[in-house]
Amino acid sequence: MGRVSTTPNTSTAQAAADLGPTGRPRTTFPVPPKLSSHGPARIISLCNQKGGVGKTTTSINLGASLAEYGRRVLAVDFDPQGALSAGLGARTHDVPTIYDLLIGEVKDPRQAIQSTRVEGLDVIPANIDLSAAEVHLVNEVAREQILARVLRKVSADYDVILIDCQPSLGILTVNALTAAHGVLIPLECEFFALRGVALLVETIDKVRDRLNEDIELDGILATMYDSRTLHSREVLERVVDAFGDSVLETVISRTVKFPDASVAASPINQFAPTHPAAEAYRQLARELISRGAAA
User: Helix H segments across 83-160?
Assistant: First the structure.
């Protein structure tokens, strides 16, 4: 009986190496050309009713990466916890915030916009006052469209507006979906995070039917991926099976550099510009631009 060769087939090994974490062939997304003019903005809501899946981390680092490619970006903190504001070093007290704009206390959004240490990236901050907005908006006429009216006033000044949503499907999130052209769903590669995606997609469909017929699903972004664990790989495989091409090729791996950058109030591409995590968010920016989901 002849010996069975244990040497891996070279072509098979090469084919496996050419596949990304999502199981699809790796794509090289080109560096986008500089823009000759700016605006009107494409508004993207970063949504997931589960907390801790990377919405704020993605809002900060996607915004900084788009700015690095010459886009003018406005990040809107739409979470009462104010993590986006803190992560970009924005002031949140004794200054106009998104809450003041929602309730009409401040009429001009430009009064609430703060520049950040990233050239081309601005922010509208939030603080705990925003938690009272849902109660305040209950009796407002067309309450689901208030954020859209606010952002319409500054849309011409930016190429992309990113809305960092709170982890819920309440009136604030519905406002963000009504204002948006597209939705980006960060999804932690963990089983319990997977369970809520279908409910979120159903909510997006309802908003499309009733409030915003133009809204699109820009993509599902796998975050906190750990290629060393079978669990991460299985969850990502199930997401791709369920949502197909809606799953972005870019995958954000778990790393301690993200919390370190947050403590420094700095995006990863400034805190650790050569780290693979910084390149992952640059790739995400290029992928969204290639898909037409960003300017």
Answer: 83-87, 98-102, 133-137, 146-152
For residue 12, the model assigns a pLDDT of 52
Residue 240 lies in a domain: yes
As a residue count, the chain comes to 295
Owning domain of residue 275: 36-291
Tell me whether residue 15 is in a domain: no
Residues contacting residue 164 through CB under 8 Å, at least 6 positions apart:
46, 55, 56, 59, 75, 76, 77, 78, 79, 83, 84
Q: b or e along 97-130 (b: 16 or more beta carbons within 10 Å of the residue's beta carbon)?
A: bbbbbbeeebeebeebbbebebebbbbbbbbebb
- Residue at 66: amino acid letter: L
Q: What span, in angstroms and rounded, lies between the C-alpha atoms of 149 and 161?
A: 14
CATH value at residue 258: 3.40.50.300
Peptide bond into 96 cis (omega under 30): no
* Residue 235 covered by a domain: yes
Provide the whole-model pTM. 0.91
Residue 17 confidence (pLDDT) above 60: no
Each residue's pLDDT tens digit, 230-276: 988 888 998 898 888 999 999 999 999 999 998 899 999 999 999 99
Q: Are 154 and 110 in contact (CB under 8 A)?
A: yes
- List strand residue ranges (DSSP E) for 129-212, in order: 160-165, 182-188
**pLDDT (tens digit, 9 = 90+) per residue, 149-187?**
999 999 999 999 999 999 988 899 999 999 999 999 999
Eight-class DSSP state of 136? H
Give the pairing type, strands 42-46 and 73-78: unpaired
Domains in the chain, number? 1
